[in-house]
Amino acid sequence: MSGISYNDDVFDFDFISNKEANIIQFKNLPLEPVQFKDKTLTKNTYYFGYEFLNNDVASSKIRSKFFHELKFNDKFTSPENKERFVKDALNRLDKEINIYDFNVVVYPQSRSSLNQYMVKIISNITNMDLNTYELVKKMPSEIKFDFEKFMKVELDSIVNGKPRYTEAQKKQQILKIEKILADIKKSDYFSIAELVKTNKYKINFKPYFKTPRKNSNKTKSIINAKNILLLDDVTTTGATLLQCLRSLRTLTTEANIVLFTLVGKKDIFS
């Protein structure tokens, strides 16, 4: 099976033959429903993207190197390989759901230009006048944590008939969160996602992508859309896509939303 291999510190794209050392295999993938802890996000939400093979083949070090070079290294691979990689994934997505049925494409703001590149490829393939929307992050000072929800669901929870946390433990948890919030508010603009997604409290951070203005034409296209393609170049923890999805679901609860990444893992959303 064709795919991407890693040898001598180099990633090799092979769209024809199979190699035993493949870390990613190019194959048809199912469009799978995604399960979230927040059930309001589960309805009509699906995931599609390549996955790394097991850790024996693709170690965490190799995965991290691949993610970084794919997003930020212009010399990572040839332009032909890069284009074919994106097109190959889109063609396989098209076998699961007609990509011509999407009229809205949404993607998160990022230091990587790969998202815009993916949108360009989609537009060229479909030859459609797609409504594209780049979701913009809030400023670090605007990031908030849903303490009310966290208290109700986590800190005040009962396990085997007993409170899960003592009052002292509750205070300790809140102090940890306040420290994280303080670090975020002092952080670089593009570090927001990193600081949120690397802690266990991430599900309780309020959406840090700004909700589109409801009177704009692009927002109206989102509200009226039946099928929305929410794309991100790669997915590591899923925090960015989760935040984007939350922002979209404030506008539409009925649209089918497909989370599309070149490489990721759907299980991280559950």
Write a brief caption for the model.
The chain is of the alpha/beta class. Helices cover 35% and strands 19% of the residues. The longest helix has 19 residues, at 167-185.
What can you see in these coordinates?
The protein is α/β, with parallel strands linked by helices and 270 residues long. The mean pLDDT is 88. The longest helix is centred in the middle third of the chain and has 19 residues, at 167-185. The protein is built from eight helices and eleven strands. Helix content is 35%, strand content 19%. It folds into two domains: 31-136 and 209-269, Rossmann fold; 140-204, no CATH class. Helix 2 (79-94) crosses helix 3 (114-126).
Query: What is the H/E string?
Result: EEEEEHHEHEHEEHHHEHE
Helix-residue proportion? 25-40%
Give, in spatial order, the strands making up the sheet with the most strands: 4-5-11-10-6-7
Q: How many structurally independent domains?
A: 2
Annotation keywords:
270 residues; alpha/beta; Rossmann fold; 2 domains; six-stranded mixed β-sheet; three-stranded antiparallel β-sheet; 35% helix; globular
